[in-house]
Every structure is written in structure tokens, then in C-alpha cells.
Design goal:
Chain lengths: 417, 228
């Protein structure tokens, strides 16, 4: 076997140009497939990151009326919606694949947040419990988090995110300053930032809105202060941190089901629902995948053509080497040996083509990714599969010529000059 | 008796036209004999040799090699017979052009599944037997015709077959290299190898202990005392 591989290399090297041209079909086919797959996977990763964030695995469970999130800025609280109790939150934390869970209230306040004369227009105000920042993957950038005293005494303190700090303080340090929230003074004790910063690529309106929400600024308050500036007994939303991205859907659904058990609103369309980002991501991914499958098929045709090229050259090679085959048989080589020799040669040829194609594909996908700004995601299994697949092409298209060689009549072969 | 061919017929077919090439050929060769077959071109010598070398099957007749009925064997067993029981030498040497003398001699050992180290050892020994141990690494293009033929003989002998078949082994050589090859054949014969050789050269034919004549597909023996 090793001997055969060595001989194959010898044969391929002695016809460098011919071997290269033969491999070209395989190289182009494999390179195209690698480039397409890498681009698809890069795009998918991008979609996931834009929608879900970089690996925090957060799921929002909010109250919906029909298809719309209930916003208590404008609407009274309907009867039959209790505030989520601490024991219920504990129960949710104990559910399978839940890493953490936290309660919060949120509203968009267009004209309620000021520092001197600067307004945080369109910013969001959050009333959060003590686990919120860690559950959402937010980190203190400077200052401190909320203390138990802040909660216990309902202190008028707040934490800004870096966008609201930028808007309100225009680059100056916010910590220690006092801002105005609905006319009440709040001392800024800290500034939070996302653990991993990533710049989303915005190519649709939906992505634009998601991005705007993240970039319009947030002010966080201890949830015990909420009633002082907004209202009492406002139902909370829930944010979950799932153990893995693939758990997000089930974790959100389980928590929503549990919370819905406590509802007794007359309007049965009022329900807790998990915002299923994973599902949305999958749908968009499938859409782009089905168009790209077509491209893969087209690249596959190139592989088929490459395979036929290999078969053609192998047939020529068998004819050229008729005398050699005849002699080998005459001095005792078995059919299976001749078959193995030619098959090995075909497989070595297509494998080299496959490996070269993988290299060309990686380069190609980098070029594509530079050109349209989507990082390519090169998958190792796809690379291995490509090389294995090109080996398979060698076997399939090498079989006929090898079979022909093995069955040559040694007499005919020896008389062949 | 190492070769026993009885009533061998061989027909070729050319567009439904039957071309009889061997017509009732019988041949017995005993172990250690040195037999030459002579005859005009196209008389069927190579055809007979290919049958003896298990490369071809006769249309009719029986053939025993070393007591074994050859015509009943399958393809796989036939290749084993070619590998171990007969050595074949051709007029045009038939060496692998890109492989060294040593690698060429190694080929049958590869087919026999012998380990690389042992292969080298045995191939070197075979090259020594033909006096070419100092040309082991030479490619065929770097060897003279006579040297090439000696490499081919080493390759034929490397598995120690009892019988060596040679189809015009000196046909492509000048008379000096030719006589060197003949000396080598004599040496092998005295070592106990049975030799069957086709030749056009009457002088070379004389050197054999038995000379047979093939004329128009029929074989006749010419030995002192016996007639045609
Ligand atoms: N495949 C074939 N089909 C038809 N006829 C063939 C075939 N092979 C050989 N022959 C014929 O058989 C006859 C004998 O050929 P062979 O090669 O045995 O002759 P030869 O005695 O070895 O001649 P030379 O001395 O020239 O080598 C020739 O007439 C040849 O044309
Ligand atoms: Mg002949």
C-alpha cells in the first residue's frame, strides 16, 4: 500500500502539468464548496450574534396581549396579573438548564431623564433586582453595583450604561453626579458595559431597531425604588440565562408556562411569552441556507466534471501503460494488485486535488469575507469531509479505468508497442 | 518431467476467420534440460512460449507444469504460478524505465508480499548472480543492452523458479553482449535451472543440448540420429 502511494507520487510528478490540469476540476469544485459553506456559516453566526448577542444566552419573558408586549407606560394594569413573587423566581431558577434568572421592569421614558439640560430622549429605564447585571452579562465598568442597603432603604441611586453616560455627560465621568428622573434626584453610583463588545452588521430594518434599542441608552434603578417614580404593583418581566444557546427555546417556554399558571386575567390573550430569538435566527438562517444549497449543488457539478476528467486521464494512462501492465502480470502480479495500483493513483490524485482545493477555498472565503464584511466561519468538519469526498471521487471515477487495467490480457499488453 | 504439453492447438480468430497457429504441438522437457526452439518468423514460437509461461491458454490440448494441470487453474492461481514457478525473459527487456535495477528486480518480491528489507537482500543476491551488483542503483537508461537483459534475468530468477523461459533474449543485442548472455544461461543451467529459449540465431541454437524446430505451427525435434 505504502509502496503504491510512493509509486503514485512518482507517476504524478513525472506528468506534473497533466496531473495539475486533471486535478483542477477537483480543486475548483472543492474550493467553491468550502468558500460557500464558510460564507454560509459566517452569515449564520452573524445572524445569531445580531439577534441573540454574543453568547449570553439571554431569554426575555414578557407579558403580551396578543402579539404585542404590554407597556404599562400607557396602559393600566389589568386585574388578575399578580407581581411575580420571590418564591416563583426561585422555582424558575431551579428549572432545568436555567443558569440564572432575574426580574425587572422596563419602560421607555422620552422626557423623564435629565442631567442639567441634557435629556436622555428615548432611553430606557430599568428597575432591576440584585442578580440582573450578572444574569444579563453586564459588567461594572466603573463605580459600584447596587448594595443591599440600596435595596433595603429604597435609595435614590442609579447605574448608567455607557451609551447613556455618553449622551448625558458627553464624555465626562458620571460617577458621583446627580441626574434627574421624573423630577427626583438620583445619584449615579456606577456605569456598566457588556462583557464582550461586538459590532453588529446592520443590513435590515429589524436589525436596525434591535441595534437602536441597545444603543439608545439605559438607566438602571434598584427595583425597590420603582414605585416611587412610576407605580405600585407593576408586573415584572423575567430575564433568563440559559446554560447553552440551544437550551434557550425550551428554557423560555418552561418559564413562561410556569408564570402563566399564576395569571387570572379576564382577557385570555394576556400571556407571558418568551422572546424566541433562537427560533427567529433559525428561520432567517434557513432562508439563506436554501438559496446557498443551490450554489453547493452547482459546485457539486464542477466536482462531477472534475471526476470525469480524472477518469478520462486514468483511461489514457492505462492505454499508455499497457506494456507495463502486461509485464507486471507476466511476472506474477495479481489482478487485485493492478487494480489497487491504479485506484491508489486515482485516489492520490484526487486527494491532492482535494487538499489543494481546501487551501484555495480557505483563501477564497477570506477574500469574500473581506469584500462584503461578513466574517467567514471555516468549519473543520467541512474541511475533513471535503478531503474524504475527493478521495471518494478518486475511488468512484478511478474504478472503471483500474478495472480495465486489471483485466488487460497480458498477451495483448505485451505485444502492444 | 517438468514440462509436459500434449496435442496443443491454438487458433486465433480474425473477423470470424479462424487462423490456426499451433497445430498439434507436443513437448516434454525434463528438469535441468536446456532446450532451444528455432524457426521462421510467424511460425508460432512466441505463441507456444506464452502458453508455457501461463500467459495464454491453448484452444485444445493438455499442459502439466511440474506435475500440475495448468489448464484447470483460475486466474489467481495462474498468477501465482507465473510468480513462483516460471521466470520470463523478453527480447526487449521490459524493464520499468523509471525504476532502478534493484527496484526492477524487487518487483516479483513485492507481488509475493515479502518485507522490504528482505526484498532488498534477495534482489541484491539475484543481481550478484548475474554479475551486476555494482549497478544496483542504475536506471535502465544508464545501462547497456546486455546489462538490461541481465537485470531482466535477475528479475526472472529472483523467486528461484525451476524453469526459465526466454523469447529471443539476444535478439536486440550485439554478438558480444549476446554471447555474454549465453554464458549466463549456461551458468544458470549448470546450477540446475531448466531453460527453454527461442532464438533465430543458429549458432546460439547449437549451444543448447536440444534444439527444436517450429515450422508453420508444428514442432519437430532435430537431434543426432533422429530425423525430422
Ligand atoms: N492476437 C492475434 N490475433 C491473430 N493472429 C495472431 C495474434 N497473435 C499472433 N498471431 C499470429 O500467430 C502467428 C504466430 O505468431 P508468433 O508471434 O507466435 O510468431 P513467432 O514465431 O514468435 O514469430 P517471430 O519469430 O517473428 O517472433 C503469426 O502469424 C501471427 O500473425
Ligand atoms: Mg516471437
Amino acid at each position: 500500500m505504502l509502496e503504491n502511494i510512493r509509486l503514485s507520487f512518482q507517476g504524478i510528478l513525472s506528468h506534473k502539468m497533466r496531473s495539475f490540469l486533471t486535478m483542477l476540476g477537483i480543486i475548483i469544485g472543492i474550493a467553491a464548496i468550502i468558500a460557500i459553506v464558510s460564507t454560509i456559516q459566517g452569515t449564520n453566526k452573524q445572524i445569531e450574534q445580531n439577534l441573540i448577542g454574543s453568547g449570553d444566552n439571554n431569554v426575555d419573558v414578557q407579558l403580551y396581549q396578543g402579539d404585542y408586549v404590554l407597556d404599562f407606560s400607557y396602559e393600566p394594569i389589568p386585574a388578575g396579573i399578580p407581581v411575580i413573587a420571590q418564591e416563583v423566581l426561585e422555582e424558575i431558577r431551579q428549572q432545568e438548564h436555567v443558569e440564572d434568572a432575574s426580574l425587572y421592569r422596563k419602560r421607555q421614558d422620552y422626557d423623564g431623564v435629565y442631567y442639567r439640560d441634557t435629556s436622555l430622549s428615548g432611553g430606557y429605564v430599568y428597575g432591576v433586582d440584585s442578580r440582573y447585571f450578572s444574569a444579563c452579562g453586564l459588567m461594572m465598568k466603573k463605580g459600584r453595583g447596587f448594595s443591599s442597603e440600596d435595596y433595603a432603604k429604597s435609595k435614590k441611586v442609579c447605574i448608567l450604561d455607557k451609551n447613556s453616560e455618553k449622551v448625558l455627560f458627553e464624555g465626562a465621568d458620571a460617577v458621583g453626579k446627580t441626574i434627574e428622573l421624573r423630577g427626583e434626584p438620583f445619584v449615579v453610583v456606577g456605569v456598566v458595559t457588556e462583557k464582550e463588545a461586538f459590532e453588529p452588521v446592520i443590513s435590515t430594518m429589524d436589525e436596525y431597531y434591535t441595534y437602536m434599542e441597545q444603543s439608545s441608552g439605559a438607566v438602571y434603578l434598584p427595583d425597590t425604588v420603582w414605585p416611587i417614580i412610576y407605580q405600585y404593583d407593576e408586573p415584572q418581566s423575567l430575564v433568563l440565562k440559559a446554560e447553552t444557546t440551544s437550551d434557550m427555546t425550551s428554557v423560555g417556554k418552561n418559564a413562561a408556562d410556569l408564570l402563566n399558571g399564576y395569571l387570572s386575567a379576564e382577557d385570555s390573550s394576556i400571556q407571558y411569552k418568551a422572546e424566541d430569538l433562537m427560533e427567529q435566527a433559525k428561520q432567517i438562517q434557513q432562508l439563506s441556507q436554501s438559496t446557498n444549497m443551490m450554489l453547493i449543488w452547482i459546485a457539486g457539478i464542477s466536482l462531477l466534471v472534475g471526476g470525469i476528467g480524472v477518469m478520462n486521464i486514468m483511461l489514457v494512462s492505462v492505454t499508455e501503460r499497457t506494456a507495463e501492465i502486461g509485464l507486471k502480470k507476466a511476472i506474477g502480479a495479481r489482478k487485485s494488485y493492478i487494480l489497487g495500483q491504479f485506484l491508489t493513483e486515482a485516489v492520490v490524485l484526487t486527494s491532492i486535488g482535494g487538499i489543494a482545493g481546501v487551501a484555495a477555498g480557505i483563501i477564497l472565503s477570506q477574500i469574500i469575507s473581506r469584500a462584503n464584511g461578513i466574517p467567514a466561519q471555516i468549519s473543520i468538519p467541512a474541511l475533513i469531509l471535503s478531503v474524504v469526498f475527493s478521495m471518494a471521487i478518486g475511488i468512484i471515477f478511478g474504478l472503471l479505468p483500474s478495472y480495465k487495467a486489471a483485466n488487460l490480457d497480458p498477451i495483448e499488453a505485451l505485444r502492444h508497442e | 518431467m517438468i514440462l509436459n504439453l500434449q496435442n496443443i492447438y491454438k487458433d486465433y480468430y480474425q473477423d470470424k476467420l479462424v487462423v490456426p497457429v499451433l497445430k498439434d504441438v507436443s513437448l516434454q522437457v525434463y528438469e535441468g534440460e536446456y532446450v532451444a526452439i528455432m524457426g521462421p518468423s510467424g511460425s508460432g514460437k512466441t505463441t507456444l512460449m506464452n502458453i508455457i509461461g501461463c500467459l495464454d491458454r491453448p484452444t485444445n490440448g493438455t499442459y502439466e507444469l511440474d506435475g500440475r494441470n495448468i489448464l484447470g487453474l483460475n486466474d489467481k492461481t495462474l498468477s501465482e504460478v507465473r510468480l513462483n514457478s516460471v521466470g520470463f525473459v523478453f527480447q526487449n527487456f521490459q524493464l520499468m524505465p523509471r525504476q532502478s535495477a534493484l527496484e526492477n528486480v524487487c518487483l516479483p518480491l513485492v507481488y509475493a508480499g515479502i518485507k522490504k528489507k528482505e526484498r532488498k537482500k534477495r534482489a541484491m543476491a539475484a543481481l550478484e548472480r548475474v554479475g551486476l551488483e555494482d549497478r544496483a542503483e542504475f536506471k535502465p537508461t544508464q545501462l547497456s543492452g546486455g546489462q538490461k537483459q541481465r537485470v531482466a534475468i535477475a528479475r526472472a530468477m529472483v523467486n528461484h523458479p525451476k524453469i526459465l523461459l526466454a523469447d529471443e533474449p539476444t535478439g536486440a543485442l550485439d554478438s558480444k553482449s549476446g554471447s555474454q548472455i549465453m554464458e549466463l544461461f549456461h551458468k544458470l543451467n549448470t546450477e540446475g535451472v531448466t531453460i527453454v529459449m527461442i532464438t533465430h540465431d543458429a549458432r546460439i541454437g547449437e549451444e543448447a543440448e536440444r534444439t527444436l524446430h517450429m515450422i508453420d505451427g508444428m514442432l519437430s525435434e532435430k537431434k543426432e540420429g533422429r530425423g525430422v
